[in-house]
Structures are given as structure tokens and as C-alpha cells.
Specification:
Shape: globular
Strand content: 15-25%
Distance between the termini: 13 Å
Number of strands: 11
CATH class of the largest domain: Alpha Beta
Largest sheet: 8 strands, parallel, barrel
CATH topology of the largest domain: TIM Barrel
Helix content: 40-55%
Structural class: alpha/beta
Strand order of the largest sheet: 1-2-3-4-7-8-9-11
CATH architecture of the largest domain: Alpha-Beta Barrel
Length: 335
């Protein structure tokens, strides 16, 4: 089996911590840093990615994820091509239909057709090609094949995952897909799209999941409840859910708020609504042995990279989880 790859998602609650945590992740051997895109909630994606680029030397730099609604394709192409150039080819562009970014300003998310058109347009612009615009051709003057990063489509529904397989260079499987049944179903949707794609095109499967590792299992599970609540709130009805998860989804529906999206400060809010057995379905959390076993199963299913969204345990900062996960999970896997 090829060497397992790991990314770390660092949502931009505090700019200084982002830079320090990204440098820590690089020192510890993580393969990628992914930052989110939700204006009004987190610090600006491309400003922070540029700052991380100049503070690091080798780690890949990705968006997890931007969307076609809040950013014009020419703006996204210019930003990511500049980052790719600045970082020596380390950029990855993750794009989805929208969610928190669109919800925060009360506008609809993109349709799949809009997402597909956006991906094609941004890819062409990043490569220096001319594309049709509202009043004539658009072209990024400084772009070339060297400034075109790989594009990943992020999503959790079957049709978006199939679109990723067909159109993108990679997929970011969201939704806290940590149960074997849902993972198998989502990978099947990606493969359905891959069957329609150019088989010669390289493709990378990434899975995004909240993570917390600690000798005290209960503390680790408690830490990731905010992320589990988000995943329950937006779980596509096409996927299998256990009966406890169905009940928990109903319980969190009235508790979720866009301005608390993925916030570690919301853990207590969801404590009564999400039992431990449901947390285990939607996150990589628990003792070191439990996390290692879950990670092994995810890679064995066909995932190329696990992107952890680290949550600090019992008041500890998230960097403690970044360190613990590298020590207790990544190191044993890599030998």
C-alpha cells in the first residue's frame, strides 16, 4: 500500500494560530493544509493561504472549499494561480456548491450545472486560456500551464460526488463519512463519475473528518460534537443512517446556526442531542487505538488522503490534537 497521506483543515478563527498551526503541521509531516472559505465567519481565505505559503516550504495549500456564488471565476482563478506561482506549485483548489458562505448572506447555493461550468472556466483561466465572458473573452494575462493547480470538488451528496469523479482532479468527501456503509456508498458515487471521465487523468480521493484523539474516549468524543452536529444537519437523505443518527439529526435541526459553524465553543450545546455512538459514525475520535483502527479502515476502502479537522480536547488548543494525531496515528501507520 502506498504511504498514507494526511491533510489538516484549519478553519480561520484566529490568524496567528493559523500560521503557527500550519508550520507545526509541516514539521510533523502532514501533507497538506486546507483552509475554509466563509466570509463573515472566518478570516479571508486567500490572504491566509498567502501568509501560510511564505511561512512554509513544502506542504500543499488548499481551499476546503470555495464556491461559485460568492466569488467570480476570474477572481478565484487570479487568486489561486497567484498562490500556485507564489508557493512553487503547492496550491490545490477545492470548490463546492456553497453552504455556510452562501447561507451567511442568505443566497442560494450553486446548482450542479453552475458548479460544473465554474470548474471548467476556472481551470481554463488558470491555464492562460481565453474563455467567454459577459461582454467578450476573459483571459488571465500572467497564467500558463504552470499556474494551473489541481481542482478538487468537495461535496457529500451522490450527484456532486459523481460530478467530482467525472470532471475534477480530485474529490473532497465531506459529511463526516466515517461509517463503513456511508463511505462505501460515497466512493461508489465517485467511481460512477470516474467511469465517464478520461481514465488517464490522475485523480485523488480525500476524506474530510473532524478528529480528536485522547486516552479518555469520552473527552475525545465530546470535543468533536460541533462538527458532528453540522454533518448531521446537512446529511444527504440518499445515504444510510443508523436509527440513533436519525434521531440526533432531528434534535440538532433547531440548534444549528451558521455563525457557529464548526466552532469548538459549541460543544456543550450539542452534548445532550448527540450520543457517543453517533459521534463515532461521523468523526475520527476516541482513544489512539480506536483512531488508528478507523484510519486504517478508511485507507483500505480506497481513500488517498484523510483531512483532519482537529478539535482540542478538554480545553486544550487544536494544535495539541494536531500533535497527538501525528504521534498516535500517523507515525504508527508510516512506521
Amino acid at each position: 500500500m502506498k504511504s498514507p497521506a494526511f491533510g489538516v483543515e484549519l478553519f480561520q478563527h484566529a490568524p496567528g494560530a493559523i500560521l503557527e498551526d500550519a508550520q507545526l503541521a509541516e514539521r510533523l509531516g502532514y501533507d497538506a493544509v486546507w483552509l475554509g472559505d466563509a466570509q463573515l465567519l472566518w478570516r479571508e481565505l486567500y490572504v491566509m493561504l498567502g501568509a501560510v505559503a511564505v511561512r512554509t516550504t513544502a506542504i500543499a495549500l488548499g481551499s476546503s472549499v470555495t464556491n461559485p456564488v460568492t466569488r467570480h471565476p476570474s477572481v478565484t482563478a487570479g487568486a489561486i494561480a497567484t498562490l500556485h506561482e507564489l508557493s512553487g506549485g503547492r496550491a490545490r483548489l477545492g470548490i463546492g456548491v456553497g453552504g455556510t458562505a452562501t447561507g451567511m448572506i442568505g443566497v442560494p447555493s450553486a446548482t450542479r450545472a453552475q458548479l460544473a461550468a465554474y470548474v471548467r472556466t476556472v481551470r481554463a483561466l488558470c491555464a492562460g486560456e481565453a474563455v467567454p465572458g459577459p461582454q467578450g473573452a476573459m483571459q488571465l494575462t500572467y497564467a500558463s500551464a504552470a499556474t494551473r493547480p489541481p481542482i478538487y470538488i468537495g461535496g457529500s451528496g451522490p450527484k456532486v460526488l459523481a460530478l467530482a469523479g467525472e470532471l475534477a482532479d480530485g474529490v473532497i468527501i465531506g459529511g463526516g463519512t466515517c461509517s463503513p456503509e456511508r463511505l462505501e456508498a460515497k466512493l461508489s458515487a465517485v467511481q460512477e463519475g470516474r467511469a465517464r471521465a478520461d481514465g488517464a487523468r490522475p485523480f485523488r480521493v480525500c476524506l474530510s473528518a473532524a478528529a480528536a484523539v485522547h486516552p479518555d474516549r469520552a473527552l475525545a468524543l465530546a470535543a468533536v460534537r460541533p462538527a458532528v452536529a453540522v454533518n448531521l444537519r446537512f446529511t444527504d437523505p440518499a445515504w444510510p443512517l443508523s436509527e440513533p443518527a436519525r434521531r440526533a439529526r432531528e434534535a440538532v435541526a433547531d440548534l444549528y446556526r451558521h455563525d457557529e459553524h464548526m466552532s469548538p465553543d459549541a460543544a456543550d450545546k450539542f452534548a445532550a442531542a448527540i450520543p457517543d455512538e453517533v459521534v463515532a459514525e461521523f468523526a475520527i475520535a476516541g482513544t489512539p487505538a480506536e483512531c488508528l483502527a478507523k484510519v486504517r479502515a478508511i485507507f483500505a476502502a480506497g481513500v488517498d488522503e484523510i483531512m483532519i479537522n482537529p478539535y482540542g480536547v478538554a480545553g486544550a488548543p487544536r494544535r495539541a490534537t494536531i500533535e497527538a494525531f501525528a504521534r498516535e496515528v500517523i507515525a504508527p501507520l508510516r512506521g
